[in-house]
Amino acid sequence: MMRSICDWASSKKVNHSDEERRERDLNPRVQGTVDFESTAIPGYATSALSQGFSATVISMMMPSRIMEVRFHGRDVEISSSFAPGTTVREALLASEILPSMVIVSYEGTVLPHSTRLNQDIELLVTTISSGG
Prior knowledge:
Blueprint: H1 2-25, H2 28-31, E1 36-37, E2 46-47, E3 67-72, E4 77-82, H3 88-94, E5 102-106, E6 109-111, E7 121-127
Parallel strand pairs: 3-7
Antiparallel strand pairs: 1-2, 3-4, 5-6, 5-7
């Protein structure tokens, strides 16, 4: 009989411990924990945000690299700075050159206006003439 009372007491202790754990798990400070995940891109950090609380998120970003694009030709002489990945068309428009009026080439090769630029570059701009 004594053994069964001890078993009963220890089972109550375990249950009491389970109740404490449930109370602790329901604590809003414990529920508000933010798990951070890396995107595996050096210099960047992102976080998984949980709803129902506010948290401070610290992000590191590498300084954005800017490339210099120089357009030159008979009617054009302009240099502008752009983010890598800018297309020839976007660079022309930003430099106030109408893409429909020019052909752009690099070292003798004509570039489609959809070409993405990724480094400093000098491009020859040839104005297209038409009419009668």
